[in-house]
Amino acid sequence: MLYLLLFVAGAIAWMISTVAAGGAAMLLIPILGLSVSAQSVAPVITVASLMANPSRTFVFWQYIHWPVIVRLLPGSILGAIIGAYAFTQVPAFYLQFILGIFLLSTLWQYRFGKRKRSFPMPSWAFFPLGICVAFVSGIVGGAGPVMNPFFLNHGLEKEQLVATKAFNSLALQSTKLLSYLGLGAMSWEMGLSGLLIGAGGIVGVFWARNHLERIDNERFRQYALYLMPIGGVLLIAKAFASL
């Protein structure tokens, strides 16, 4: 029963996150909180993402925005290594709480969808952004929606945003997994849970593909903007649950 629950949860989380530009990890936090220990969440989500994101990358390959990848990817790899090490050393509470507040604030930043951009996002800033977000992801398991305001403010929309994030996440999660294994922070039970969620995630990506292609940019932005505060609430709840 637990295995079926993990598979279905993965399918639903990746279906929603495909049409709303990320957030699968945060949507899975309540389910994982019931089925695995708090210390296992980050490695389990890493394995699941490493299974599901290649399908998302494959489906939307033609939309990848390579100028952003060139700057974002090196920072993401560096941040993932540092974050995976910090995972074994640093309590996640403060990072989860701060990120949760940031995600909640996006509703006000975008004036509840009335503003298209809330701050300028130059190309050079994607390198430090990659370091910061990957570092946080290494500790708390996932921070995908945190990137959404930066991508939206740079001008990426719909498939382009989803594809670029998926390709970057593939490299980020691979680096995290190798780092967790090297640091002895991964067990076969974590790996199995991650594989089941990831298998469901592959199904969810293909379910979501047609819907994403049908909706317009305005509807996509609404999905993305309203998922961010939901992720914020889940992160804050997880932070206090870990105390």
Report on the architecture of this protein.
79% of the residues lie in helices and 0% in strands. By secondary structure, it is mostly helical. Helix 2 (24-35) packs parallel to helix 10. The chain starts with a helix and ends with a helix.
Structure keywords:
mainly alpha; 243 residues; single chain; 0% strand
Gross geometry: globular
Overall number of structural domains: 1
**Proportion of residues in helical segments:** over 70%
Q: Element order, helices and strands?
A: HHHHHHHHHH
Largest sheet: none
Portion in strands: under 5%
Summed up, the helix count is 10
Quote the average pLDDT: 83
Unreliable segments of 5+ consecutive residues? none
Q: C-alpha Rg, in Å?
A: 16 Å
Question: Could you give a quick summary of the protein structure above?
Answer:
This protein has about 240 residues and is mostly helical. The chain is globular, with a radius of gyration of 16 Å.
Topology, element by element:
Blueprint: H1 2-19, H2 24-35, H3 41-59, H4 66-87, H5 93-109, H6 126-140, H7 144-154, H8 158-182, H9 188-214, H10 217-241
Helix pairs in contact: 1-2, 1-9, 2-10, 3-8, 3-9, 4-6, 4-8, 5-10, 6-7, 7-10
